[in-house]
Design brief:
Layout (H helix, E strand, L loop, with lengths): L7 H4 L7 E7 L15 H14 L5 E6 L1 H15 L11 E3 L4 E9 L1 H9 L4 E8 L3 H11 L7 H18 L5 H7 L4 H12 L2 H4 L14 H16 L6 H14 L3 H16 L5 H14 L2 H19 L13 H25 L5 H12 L1
Parallel strand pairs: 2-5
Antiparallel strand pairs: 1-5, 2-4, 3-4
Length: 368
Protein backbone atom coordinates (compact mmCIF):
# COMPACT_ATOMS: atom_id res chain seq x y z
CA UNK A 1 0.00 0.00 0.00
CA UNK A 2 1.51 3.29 -1.13
CA UNK A 3 1.93 5.84 1.62
CA UNK A 4 0.21 9.14 0.86
CA UNK A 5 2.28 12.30 0.96
CA UNK A 6 0.98 15.76 1.75
CA UNK A 7 2.49 19.18 1.20
CA UNK A 8 1.75 21.51 4.09
CA UNK A 9 2.21 24.45 1.75
CA UNK A 10 -0.34 23.09 -0.71
CA UNK A 11 -2.74 22.15 2.13
CA UNK A 12 -2.56 25.54 3.79
CA UNK A 13 -6.02 27.11 3.78
CA UNK A 14 -6.47 30.51 2.20
CA UNK A 15 -9.10 32.97 3.41
CA UNK A 16 -11.92 33.93 1.01
CA UNK A 17 -11.42 36.95 -1.21
CA UNK A 18 -11.78 40.17 0.76
CA UNK A 19 -10.98 38.42 4.06
CA UNK A 20 -7.64 38.61 5.89
CA UNK A 21 -6.47 36.50 8.81
CA UNK A 22 -4.66 38.99 11.00
CA UNK A 23 -3.52 39.91 14.50
CA UNK A 24 -4.83 43.42 15.12
CA UNK A 25 -3.62 45.80 17.83
CA UNK A 26 -6.36 45.80 20.48
CA UNK A 27 -6.68 49.57 20.56
CA UNK A 28 -7.69 49.71 16.87
CA UNK A 29 -10.85 47.62 17.36
CA UNK A 30 -14.15 49.42 18.01
CA UNK A 31 -17.03 47.79 19.93
CA UNK A 32 -20.71 48.49 19.18
CA UNK A 33 -24.03 47.15 20.46
CA UNK A 34 -24.60 43.52 19.50
CA UNK A 35 -27.12 40.70 19.91
CA UNK A 36 -25.76 39.48 23.27
CA UNK A 37 -27.00 42.04 25.82
CA UNK A 38 -25.16 40.49 28.77
CA UNK A 39 -21.98 38.47 29.16
CA UNK A 40 -21.50 36.19 32.16
CA UNK A 41 -18.54 37.19 34.33
CA UNK A 42 -17.86 33.53 35.12
CA UNK A 43 -17.69 32.59 31.44
CA UNK A 44 -15.24 35.44 30.77
CA UNK A 45 -13.04 34.36 33.70
CA UNK A 46 -12.95 30.78 32.40
CA UNK A 47 -12.22 31.90 28.84
CA UNK A 48 -9.52 34.30 30.03
CA UNK A 49 -7.79 31.50 31.94
CA UNK A 50 -7.99 29.22 28.90
CA UNK A 51 -6.54 31.83 26.53
CA UNK A 52 -3.78 32.63 28.99
CA UNK A 53 -2.80 28.95 29.06
CA UNK A 54 -3.20 27.93 25.41
CA UNK A 55 -3.46 31.21 23.50
CA UNK A 56 -6.39 32.43 21.41
CA UNK A 57 -7.42 29.35 19.43
CA UNK A 58 -10.38 30.81 17.52
CA UNK A 59 -10.38 33.96 15.42
CA UNK A 60 -12.96 36.67 16.05
CA UNK A 61 -14.66 38.55 13.21
CA UNK A 62 -13.90 42.22 12.58
CA UNK A 63 -15.10 44.32 9.64
CA UNK A 64 -13.16 47.11 7.95
CA UNK A 65 -15.24 49.94 6.48
CA UNK A 66 -14.39 53.19 4.73
CA UNK A 67 -15.73 56.43 6.20
CA UNK A 68 -18.82 56.49 3.98
CA UNK A 69 -19.48 52.79 4.64
CA UNK A 70 -19.00 53.37 8.37
CA UNK A 71 -21.48 56.24 8.42
CA UNK A 72 -24.12 54.03 6.78
CA UNK A 73 -23.26 51.14 9.10
CA UNK A 74 -23.55 53.29 12.26
CA UNK A 75 -26.84 54.73 11.03
CA UNK A 76 -28.23 51.21 10.63
CA UNK A 77 -26.85 50.09 14.00
CA UNK A 78 -28.47 53.11 15.66
CA UNK A 79 -31.80 52.36 14.01
CA UNK A 80 -31.58 48.71 15.02
CA UNK A 81 -30.52 49.03 18.66
CA UNK A 82 -31.70 52.55 19.55
CA UNK A 83 -28.12 53.77 20.03
CA UNK A 84 -26.60 57.14 19.10
CA UNK A 85 -23.16 56.31 17.72
CA UNK A 86 -21.37 59.03 15.74
CA UNK A 87 -18.43 58.60 13.38
CA UNK A 88 -16.53 61.28 15.32
CA UNK A 89 -16.38 58.95 18.33
CA UNK A 90 -14.13 56.48 16.48
CA UNK A 91 -10.63 56.66 15.04
CA UNK A 92 -9.74 55.16 11.65
CA UNK A 93 -6.58 53.26 10.78
CA UNK A 94 -4.73 53.45 7.48
CA UNK A 95 -4.51 50.06 5.73
CA UNK A 96 -1.48 49.99 3.43
CA UNK A 97 -2.75 47.32 1.05
CA UNK A 98 -6.09 49.08 0.61
CA UNK A 99 -4.58 52.54 0.33
CA UNK A 100 -7.04 54.43 2.54
CA UNK A 101 -8.46 54.86 6.04
CA UNK A 102 -10.81 52.24 7.46
CA UNK A 103 -12.78 51.92 10.68
CA UNK A 104 -12.57 48.54 12.39
CA UNK A 105 -15.66 47.19 14.18
CA UNK A 106 -15.87 43.83 15.93
CA UNK A 107 -18.87 41.80 14.78
CA UNK A 108 -18.33 38.51 16.62
CA UNK A 109 -15.96 37.46 19.37
CA UNK A 110 -16.80 39.99 22.06
CA UNK A 111 -16.17 37.44 24.83
CA UNK A 112 -12.75 36.62 23.39
CA UNK A 113 -11.93 40.32 23.12
CA UNK A 114 -12.78 40.89 26.80
CA UNK A 115 -10.78 37.81 27.79
CA UNK A 116 -7.70 39.00 25.89
CA UNK A 117 -8.09 42.45 27.45
CA UNK A 118 -8.24 40.84 30.91
CA UNK A 119 -4.95 39.11 30.13
CA UNK A 120 -3.53 42.52 29.17
CA UNK A 121 -2.80 41.30 25.67
CA UNK A 122 -1.81 43.72 22.92
CA UNK A 123 -2.95 41.85 19.79
CA UNK A 124 -6.18 40.10 18.89
CA UNK A 125 -6.59 37.31 16.32
CA UNK A 126 -9.30 38.11 13.76
CA UNK A 127 -10.82 37.40 10.41
CA UNK A 128 -10.87 40.88 8.89
CA UNK A 129 -13.74 41.26 6.41
CA UNK A 130 -13.45 44.29 4.14
CA UNK A 131 -16.43 46.35 2.97
CA UNK A 132 -19.22 43.84 3.64
CA UNK A 133 -22.92 44.76 3.82
CA UNK A 134 -24.85 45.39 7.01
CA UNK A 135 -26.97 42.25 6.56
CA UNK A 136 -23.88 40.12 5.95
CA UNK A 137 -22.30 41.46 9.14
CA UNK A 138 -25.45 40.61 11.12
CA UNK A 139 -25.54 37.10 9.71
CA UNK A 140 -21.90 36.54 10.62
CA UNK A 141 -22.71 37.69 14.14
CA UNK A 142 -25.69 35.35 14.39
CA UNK A 143 -23.81 32.29 13.11
CA UNK A 144 -20.87 32.98 15.42
CA UNK A 145 -23.14 33.19 18.45
CA UNK A 146 -24.48 29.70 17.79
CA UNK A 147 -21.27 28.41 19.40
CA UNK A 148 -21.99 30.22 22.68
CA UNK A 149 -25.78 30.35 22.94
CA UNK A 150 -27.32 33.73 23.67
CA UNK A 151 -30.45 34.05 25.80
CA UNK A 152 -33.77 33.36 24.10
CA UNK A 153 -34.93 36.95 24.43
CA UNK A 154 -31.68 38.33 22.96
CA UNK A 155 -31.93 35.90 20.04
CA UNK A 156 -35.59 36.82 19.52
CA UNK A 157 -34.83 40.53 19.32
CA UNK A 158 -31.97 39.90 16.92
CA UNK A 159 -33.97 37.62 14.61
CA UNK A 160 -36.87 40.07 14.48
CA UNK A 161 -34.59 43.00 13.72
CA UNK A 162 -32.67 41.06 11.06
CA UNK A 163 -35.94 39.93 9.46
CA UNK A 164 -37.21 43.51 9.23
CA UNK A 165 -33.88 44.70 7.86
CA UNK A 166 -33.74 42.07 5.10
CA UNK A 167 -37.45 42.30 4.30
CA UNK A 168 -37.01 46.03 3.74
CA UNK A 169 -34.27 45.47 1.16
CA UNK A 170 -35.90 42.33 -0.33
CA UNK A 171 -39.70 42.81 -0.27
CA UNK A 172 -40.32 39.40 -1.88
CA UNK A 173 -38.40 37.54 0.84
CA UNK A 174 -40.61 34.98 2.59
CA UNK A 175 -40.39 34.09 6.25
CA UNK A 176 -39.77 30.45 5.32
CA UNK A 177 -36.80 31.32 3.08
CA UNK A 178 -35.36 33.68 5.68
CA UNK A 179 -35.72 31.08 8.43
CA UNK A 180 -34.09 28.30 6.42
CA UNK A 181 -31.11 30.52 5.61
CA UNK A 182 -30.43 30.76 9.35
CA UNK A 183 -31.12 27.12 10.12
CA UNK A 184 -34.33 28.05 11.97
CA UNK A 185 -37.92 26.89 11.63
CA UNK A 186 -40.42 29.55 10.49
CA UNK A 187 -42.40 29.11 13.71
CA UNK A 188 -39.30 29.98 15.75
CA UNK A 189 -38.76 33.20 13.83
CA UNK A 190 -42.46 34.04 13.90
CA UNK A 191 -42.43 33.60 17.67
CA UNK A 192 -39.42 35.91 17.93
CA UNK A 193 -41.19 38.60 15.91
CA UNK A 194 -44.23 38.31 18.16
CA UNK A 195 -42.13 38.56 21.32
CA UNK A 196 -40.46 41.77 20.18
CA UNK A 197 -43.85 43.33 19.45
CA UNK A 198 -44.46 43.44 23.21
CA UNK A 199 -43.51 46.65 25.05
CA UNK A 200 -39.90 46.58 26.30
CA UNK A 201 -41.04 46.51 29.94
CA UNK A 202 -43.02 43.36 29.23
CA UNK A 203 -40.10 41.76 27.36
CA UNK A 204 -37.91 42.45 30.39
CA UNK A 205 -40.12 40.25 32.55
CA UNK A 206 -37.90 37.37 31.42
CA UNK A 207 -35.22 38.83 33.68
CA UNK A 208 -34.98 37.91 37.39
CA UNK A 209 -36.94 40.27 39.64
CA UNK A 210 -38.17 40.62 43.20
CA UNK A 211 -41.51 39.07 42.17
CA UNK A 212 -40.05 36.21 40.12
CA UNK A 213 -36.54 35.12 41.03
CA UNK A 214 -35.97 33.42 37.67
CA UNK A 215 -38.10 35.80 35.64
CA UNK A 216 -41.19 34.86 33.67
CA UNK A 217 -40.64 32.12 31.10
CA UNK A 218 -39.87 33.18 27.53
CA UNK A 219 -42.41 30.70 26.15
CA UNK A 220 -45.13 32.13 28.39
CA UNK A 221 -44.43 35.68 27.21
CA UNK A 222 -44.53 34.46 23.61
CA UNK A 223 -48.04 33.16 24.28
CA UNK A 224 -48.97 36.54 25.74
CA UNK A 225 -47.66 38.11 22.53
CA UNK A 226 -49.74 35.67 20.47
CA UNK A 227 -52.87 36.75 22.33
CA UNK A 228 -51.99 40.42 21.95
CA UNK A 229 -51.42 39.94 18.21
CA UNK A 230 -54.92 38.51 17.82
CA UNK A 231 -56.48 41.29 19.86
CA UNK A 232 -54.61 44.03 18.00
CA UNK A 233 -55.88 42.57 14.72
CA UNK A 234 -59.42 43.12 16.03
CA UNK A 235 -58.61 46.60 17.36
CA UNK A 236 -58.87 45.55 21.02
CA UNK A 237 -55.21 45.28 22.03
CA UNK A 238 -54.22 45.42 25.70
CA UNK A 239 -52.34 48.43 27.02
CA UNK A 240 -49.00 47.97 28.80
CA UNK A 241 -50.53 47.89 32.29
CA UNK A 242 -53.01 45.23 31.23
CA UNK A 243 -50.26 43.16 29.61
CA UNK A 244 -48.18 43.37 32.78
CA UNK A 245 -51.03 42.17 34.94
CA UNK A 246 -52.04 39.43 32.52
CA UNK A 247 -48.46 38.12 32.54
CA UNK A 248 -48.65 37.80 36.34
CA UNK A 249 -52.06 36.16 36.03
CA UNK A 250 -50.71 33.56 33.61
CA UNK A 251 -47.83 32.69 35.93
CA UNK A 252 -50.13 32.21 38.92
CA UNK A 253 -52.99 30.38 37.19
CA UNK A 254 -51.08 28.26 34.66
CA UNK A 255 -47.97 26.37 35.69
CA UNK A 256 -46.71 25.36 32.25
CA UNK A 257 -46.31 27.00 28.85
CA UNK A 258 -48.50 24.25 27.39
CA UNK A 259 -51.34 25.17 29.74
CA UNK A 260 -50.95 28.85 28.88
CA UNK A 261 -50.95 28.01 25.16
CA UNK A 262 -54.25 26.15 25.57
CA UNK A 263 -55.83 29.09 27.38
CA UNK A 264 -54.57 31.57 24.77
CA UNK A 265 -55.90 29.40 21.95
CA UNK A 266 -59.36 29.45 23.54
CA UNK A 267 -59.16 33.21 23.95
CA UNK A 268 -58.24 33.64 20.28
CA UNK A 269 -61.13 31.41 19.23
CA UNK A 270 -63.45 33.74 21.13
CA UNK A 271 -61.94 36.77 19.40
CA UNK A 272 -62.13 35.26 15.93
CA UNK A 273 -65.70 34.19 16.62
CA UNK A 274 -66.58 37.83 17.33
CA UNK A 275 -67.77 36.84 20.83
CA UNK A 276 -67.31 39.04 23.87
CA UNK A 277 -64.11 38.57 25.84
CA UNK A 278 -65.72 40.04 28.94
CA UNK A 279 -66.99 36.81 30.48
CA UNK A 280 -63.54 35.23 30.17
CA UNK A 281 -61.35 38.00 31.46
CA UNK A 282 -63.64 39.10 34.29
CA UNK A 283 -63.68 35.55 35.66
CA UNK A 284 -59.91 35.41 35.41
CA UNK A 285 -59.70 38.68 37.30
CA UNK A 286 -61.87 37.32 40.14
CA UNK A 287 -59.97 34.04 40.32
CA UNK A 288 -56.62 35.78 40.22
CA UNK A 289 -57.62 38.11 43.04
CA UNK A 290 -57.96 35.00 45.19
CA UNK A 291 -54.66 33.39 44.22
CA UNK A 292 -52.40 36.11 42.84
CA UNK A 293 -49.13 37.19 44.40
CA UNK A 294 -49.43 40.42 46.37
CA UNK A 295 -47.60 42.42 43.67
CA UNK A 296 -50.39 41.71 41.17
CA UNK A 297 -53.34 42.28 43.52
CA UNK A 298 -53.76 46.00 42.82
CA UNK A 299 -53.78 45.39 39.07
CA UNK A 300 -56.30 42.56 39.33
CA UNK A 301 -58.77 44.63 41.35
CA UNK A 302 -58.25 47.50 38.93
CA UNK A 303 -59.07 45.19 36.02
CA UNK A 304 -62.32 44.18 37.71
CA UNK A 305 -63.23 47.85 38.11
CA UNK A 306 -62.44 48.53 34.44
CA UNK A 307 -64.71 45.71 33.31
CA UNK A 308 -67.56 46.89 35.52
CA UNK A 309 -67.16 50.40 34.12
CA UNK A 310 -67.31 48.94 30.61
CA UNK A 311 -70.62 47.22 31.41
CA UNK A 312 -71.97 50.45 32.88
CA UNK A 313 -71.38 52.15 29.51
CA UNK A 314 -72.86 49.45 27.26
CA UNK A 315 -75.95 51.60 26.60
CA UNK A 316 -74.86 55.08 27.68
CA UNK A 317 -71.81 55.46 25.44
CA UNK A 318 -72.44 56.02 21.73
CA UNK A 319 -69.18 54.22 20.99
CA UNK A 320 -70.18 51.12 22.96
CA UNK A 321 -73.70 50.05 22.03
CA UNK A 322 -73.52 46.44 23.19
CA UNK A 323 -75.73 43.76 24.73
CA UNK A 324 -74.08 42.00 27.67
CA UNK A 325 -73.84 38.23 27.36
CA UNK A 326 -75.58 36.03 29.93
CA UNK A 327 -72.20 34.99 31.29
CA UNK A 328 -71.19 38.63 31.71
CA UNK A 329 -74.42 39.39 33.58
CA UNK A 330 -73.85 36.36 35.81
CA UNK A 331 -70.27 37.46 36.47
CA UNK A 332 -71.44 40.91 37.58
CA UNK A 333 -73.98 39.28 39.88
CA UNK A 334 -71.27 37.07 41.35
CA UNK A 335 -69.10 40.11 42.09
CA UNK A 336 -71.96 41.91 43.85
CA UNK A 337 -72.76 38.78 45.85
CA UNK A 338 -69.09 38.26 46.65
CA UNK A 339 -68.71 41.79 48.00
CA UNK A 340 -71.87 41.42 50.10
CA UNK A 341 -70.90 38.01 51.48
CA UNK A 342 -67.29 38.87 52.26
CA UNK A 343 -67.74 42.50 53.37
CA UNK A 344 -66.62 41.79 56.97
CA UNK A 345 -63.48 40.02 55.75
CA UNK A 346 -62.76 42.80 53.23
CA UNK A 347 -63.12 45.43 55.96
CA UNK A 348 -60.73 43.44 58.15
CA UNK A 349 -58.34 42.96 55.24
CA UNK A 350 -57.92 46.67 54.49
CA UNK A 351 -57.65 47.63 58.15
CA UNK A 352 -54.54 49.70 58.83
CA UNK A 353 -54.15 50.87 55.23
CA UNK A 354 -54.20 54.54 54.30
CA UNK A 355 -57.77 55.64 53.63
CA UNK A 356 -59.21 52.41 55.11
CA UNK A 357 -61.60 54.28 57.41
CA UNK A 358 -63.42 56.09 54.59
CA UNK A 359 -63.52 52.97 52.39
CA UNK A 360 -64.93 50.93 55.29
CA UNK A 361 -67.68 53.51 55.70
CA UNK A 362 -68.53 53.34 51.98
CA UNK A 363 -68.63 49.52 52.02
CA UNK A 364 -71.10 49.59 54.90
CA UNK A 365 -73.25 52.12 53.04
CA UNK A 366 -73.32 49.95 49.90
CA UNK A 367 -74.30 46.74 51.68
CA UNK A 368 -76.78 48.34 54.08
Amino acid sequence: MTQEKLSLVECTAEPPEGVYWVNLPLHTINVLAQMRSTISTDSIDDLSASIKKTGQMNLAIVIALTESESRRYLKQINAMWGTEYKISSFSPVYLDELGCDHYLFIVAGHRRLKAVQMNKGTYFGCQLWVGISFSKALRLQFQENLHQQVTLDDEARFLALLWRQEKKSRPNLTLATFSRSLGKKPDQVRRSIRFTSLPVEIQNLVLPSSQFKKGIGFALLCELARLQEARVAQGIGFNETELMGLAYTMVVNYRTAKAVAGWVTEQIKEINGQNTMFELTIEDAVNTARTSVRSGLEWTIGQGCSHLEAVAHFHTDDKMQKIASQTAVTAVGRIIDLVGQTAPQIIAGIQGGRGATSVTKRIKEVIS
